[in-house]
UniProtKB/TrEMBL annotation:
Gene3D superfamilies: Ribonuclease Inhibitor. PANTHER family: IG(IMMUNOGLOBULIN) AND LRR(LEUCINE RICH REPEAT) DOMAINS (PTHR24366), LEUCINE RICH REPEAT CONTAINING 53 (PTHR24366:SF96). This is Variable lymphocyte receptor B. Residues 124-149 are annotated as: Disordered. InterPro entries: Leu-rich_rpt, Leu-rich_rpt_typical-subtyp, LRR_dom_sf, Variable_lymphocyte_rcpt_C. Residues 96-143 form the Variable lymphocyte receptor C-terminal domain. Keywords: Leucine-rich repeat, Receptor, Repeat. Residues 128-149 have a biased composition (Polar residues). The keyword Magnesium does not apply.
C-alpha cells in the first residue's frame, strides 16, 4: 500500500518543493476526492502512465518547475474537472514526437493553462526548451521520432 491509500477524503495535497525525482505508478489511485495537487518545484523527469487517471475531481494541477520533457499520451484525458494547470518552467522537448500529446492538449485547453500564485491565465507559459516557442504551437511537422531519446 502507498502512503496516501487511506486518505480517501483528502482534497488538497501539496508536495511542492520536496526534491521528488519520480512518482510511483498508481500513487494517487485512492485519492478520488482530491481537488488540488501541487507537484511543482521538484525534480520530476517523467510521469508514470495513468498516474492521474483516478483523479476525476481534480481542479488544480501544478507540474511547474520540474524536469519534464513530455507527458505520457493521455496523461490528462480523465481530468475533466481541471480549471487550473501550471506547466511552465520545464525543459519541454519539442523536437521529439512525444511532445505532441501535450501540445495538442495545451492548445485545446489553453483557457486553463497559467502561471503564478495566485494563478493567472497564461496559455503560452509552457515553452519549448531552447527555443521559447509555446508548447501549444508545436506541430507534427516540426517534430521527429528520430529526435527522441
Amino acid at each position: 500500500p502507498w502512503v496516501f491509500d487511506h486518505l480517501v477524503n483528502l482534497q488538497q495535497l501539496s508536495l511542492y518543493s520536496n526534491q521528488l525525482t519520480s512518482l510511483p505508478a498508481r500513487v494517487f489511485d485512492h485519492l478520488a476526492n482530491l481537488q488540488h495537487l501541487y507537484l511543482g518545484d521538484n525534480q520530476l523527469s517523467a510521469l508514470p502512465v495513468g498516474v492521474f487517471d483516478k483523479l476525476a475531481q481534480l481542479t488544480d494541477l501544478g507540474l511547474n518547475g520540474n524536469q519534464l520533457k513530455s507527458v505520457p499520451d493521455g496523461a490528462f484525458a480523465r481530468l475533466s474537472s481541471l480549471t487550473h494547470v501550471w506547466l511552465h518552467t520545464n525543459p519541454w522537448d519539442c523536437q521529439c514526437t512525444d511532445i505532441l500529446y501535450l501540445s495538442g492538449w495545451a492548445a485545446q485547453h489553453s483557457g486553463i493553462v497559467g502561471e503564478g500564485w495566485p494563478w493567472r491565465h497564461s496559455p503560452d507559459s509552457a515553452k519549448c526548451s531552447g527555443t521559447n516557442t509555446p508548447v501549444r504551437a508545436v506541430t507534427e511537422a516540426s517534430t521527429s521520432p528520430s529526435k527522441c531519446p
